[in-house]
Design brief:
The complex is a heterodimer of chains A (286) and B (320). Chain A has 286 residues and is mainly alpha-helical. Chain A has 13 helices and two strands, in the order H-H-H-H-E-E-H-H-H-H-H-H-H-H-H. Chain A has a two-stranded antiparallel sheet with strand order 1-2. Chain A starts with a helix and ends with a helix. Chain B has a six-stranded mixed β-sheet with strand order 5-6-7-3-8-9, with helices on both faces. The radius of gyration of chain B is 22 Å and the shape is globular. In chain B, 50% of the residues are buried. The chains are: A mainly alpha (286), B alpha/beta (320).
Chain lengths: 286, 320
């Protein structure tokens, strides 16, 4: 190409060289700039995030640990050292649900705001940042918020004595975030494909999230349910994340499924949602 | 003196910052842009004038490296948008048709956050944001949330945002649509200052007065094709007469009056509400109209404008 040899001092040569140099950082860090913007925007509702992040686990742990648990005569599960407390049982499931709650917040209306209502993604799109970096940046910011929520949860879980091991206390938040992404990334892909919001998100909340929360062996072992209801748990990130968290906390392998199978389902759901979601972003913005 | 725009619209003295040949964009059967050729020289203020749906915004999106062309060649800043999208976008400033500011952030934070997308360090973003707020006359609104701004202020903020990376080319898609006359003039003044500083401007508009105000050179676009090209004065000279006589006889009599007056003007256009007579000397024609005993309800002699050029080229008004 003749322009390749053009000396840098001519008009085009210099603007061309400037352009080549200017895109180096955005090509590398674009997703982080998007995440930085999202986190800055979250400060607008930072109070809600902090109060919700601490208040919700506090209420659940108090209500269940001091209230519901007192009525239980038979142990809900057994670990390496015999029967475990009810709080040990519910804490990993509640933590995963909290991470999923963040996904419900951030991967629904906020996505439509970006594409449609405030068209923020189009502004980012006109900058050197590319559509897949926009999607990645969004996810980074949401993982940041999830991280805050599950760590706050983890601290309260330890204070309430709701975990059986140090390993459980350290790793359950990580598994909860994985659970949040296993639910959140397919949701992101779906939200990004919506052109007109006509109540789809309310449907997701009521008819997908709520059943998953109730029928995922959150408050009692999944096996308690009749067999025809158990498949809800098998496809539920809450159940898989909870089972892994429990195994870590009790120090014994999980019940029905092996550990790797739970992790595989979570990773597959997250990865599938991620691949489709990025594609939807690229198609919509290009 | 190489960086000077010389004479004929199709010959440029230096490498153009934007060059398109047979540029085409189709969506299935629909041809949005049907093979256009254009060149923009550094420092030039270039316009795309045409009605809504003419393919202006699609052309802008292709130049802005956010929409892939279907065929033809396109070079922006000497680079191909298909392979160097981020490179091109990092040196462009884009003012979209619809404001897409972050209403959750303050005016100043909008600029800072946007500067970060170009990889500009935070401190430099902050410094530049303050300069741009002065330029956009928004310094006293720095800490205000965007929602509290008027339409004209939002547009100025969007322009300030587009300048955060000190772009080689500023692209404005319908910059003053929806603004009141006063806000439009404030905006034009700011854009004019940029032009004076040598910023290359690419503007789309369906307002002829805006095109006349801002553009050194423009193309008239309709149905995805370029109908004519030149400076506003050249276009008027080529496609219209010096003056236009506008007559109103009442909607039922306009058509008949046009027949009666056909020999008085170089060209006649009958619009639903008035008759336009194109002539070098409008007053002289008006005197002849009167001498024939025809008595229009209103008459107006004015200079030809780009509106007349567009009417001549397409048979339609710009704003319908």
């Amino acid at each position: 190409m003749s322009t390749e040899q053009a000396p840098a001092t001519t008009g085009e040569g210099s603007v061309r060289d400037e352009a080549l140099a200017a895109a180096v950082r955005p090509r590398r860090f674009g997703a982080w700039y998007v995440a930085e913007h999202r986190l800055r925007s979250m400060r607008a509702y930072g109070g809600t995030i902090v109060i919700g992040g601490i208040g919700q686990p506090l209420l659940y742990l108090l209500g269940i640990g001091l209230g519901l648990a007192a009525f239980l005569d038979q142990p809900v599960a057994s670990g390496a050292h015999g029967p475990v407390s009810y709080l040990w049982f519910v804490a990993p499931a509640l933590m995963a649900s909290a991470a999923i709650g963040v996904a419900l917040d951030e991967f629904t209306y906020a996505v439509l705001e970006g594409f449609k209502w405030r068209r923020l993604f189009w502004a980012m799109n006109a900058s050197p940042v590319s559509p897949d970096q926009i999607a990645t940046g969004l996810v980074i910011a949401v993982v940041g918020r999830m991280g805050f929520v599950v760590v706050a949860y983890g601290v309260l879980v330890v204070l309430f004595g709701a975990t059986g091991s140090v390993l459980g206390a350290l790793l359950t938040p990580v598994v909860a975030v994985l659970g949040g992404l296993a639910f959140g990334l397919p949701l992101l892909a779906y939200s990004a494909s919506i052109k007109e919001e006509t109540g789809q998100f309310a449907v997701v909340q009521r008819f997908i999230f709520t059943p998953l929360f109730l029928f995922s062996g959150t408050f009692y072992p999944l096996a308690t349910l009749p067999i025809w209801l158990q498949p809800i748990g098998w496809v539920s990130p809450v159940w898989h994340a909870a089972e892994v968290g429990r195994a870590l906390s009790y120090g014994s392998p999980p019940g029905a499924w092996p550990m790797w199978a739970h992790l595989l389902v979570l990773v597959a759901m997250a990865a599938g949602g991620w691949v489709v979601g990025r594609r939807v972003f690229v198609r919509r913005l290009r | 003196m190489a960086d000077v725009w010389v004479g004929s619209p199709r010959v440029l003295a230096v490498n153009p910052v934007i060059e398109a040949r047979a540029l085409t964009k189709t969506y299935g059967e629909l041809v949005a842009v049907g093979g256009i050729d254009l060149q923009v020289a550094p420092g030039e203020s270039f316009g795309l004038l045409g009605p809504n749906g003419a393919g202006k915004s699609t052309t802008m999106r292709m130049i802005g490296a956010v929409s892939q062309r279907t065929s033809g060649t396109l070079s922006v800043l000497g680079l191909d948008p298909d392979t160097h999208g981020p490179e091109i976008r990092s040196r462009l400033g884009v003012v979209p048709q619809e404001d897409n500011l972050d209403t959750e952030l303050t005016v100043r934070d909008n600029l800072i956050v946007y500067g970060r997308y170009f990889g500009i360090p935070r401190a430099a973003c902050a410094r530049r944001a303050d300069e741009l707020l002065d330029f956009a006359e928004l310094a006293d609104k720095a800490k205000v949330k965007v929602d509290a701004l008027s339409g004209g202020m939002k547009r100025r903020l969007t322009i300030a945002r587009a300048l955060i990376n000190e772009p080689a080319v500023l692209m404005l898609d319908e910059p003053t649509t929806g603004l009141d006359p006063q806000a439009r003039h404030v905006l034009w003044d700011r854009l004019f200052r940029l032009k004076e500083r040598g910023t290359t401007l690419v503007v789309t508009t369906h307002y002829m007065d805006e095109a006349e105000q801002l553009c050194d050179r423009l193309v008239v676009v309709d149905h995805g094709r370029i109908m004519a090209e030149g400076s506003p004065a050249e276009l008027i000279r080529t496609y219209s007469t010096r003056e236009v006589l506008e007559l109103r006889f009442g909607s039922s009599r306009n058509a008949q009056a046009a027949v009666d007056l056909a020999d008085l003007a170089e060209r006649i256009e009958v619009l639903p509400d008035r008759v336009l007579l194109y002539a070098e000397d409008g007053e002289a024609v008006l005197a002849q109209v009167r001498s024939r005993g025809l008595d229009p309800t209103t008459s107006l002699v004015r200079r030809s404008s780009l509106e007349d050029v567009f009417l001549r080229l397409t048979g339609r008004s710009l704003i319908e």
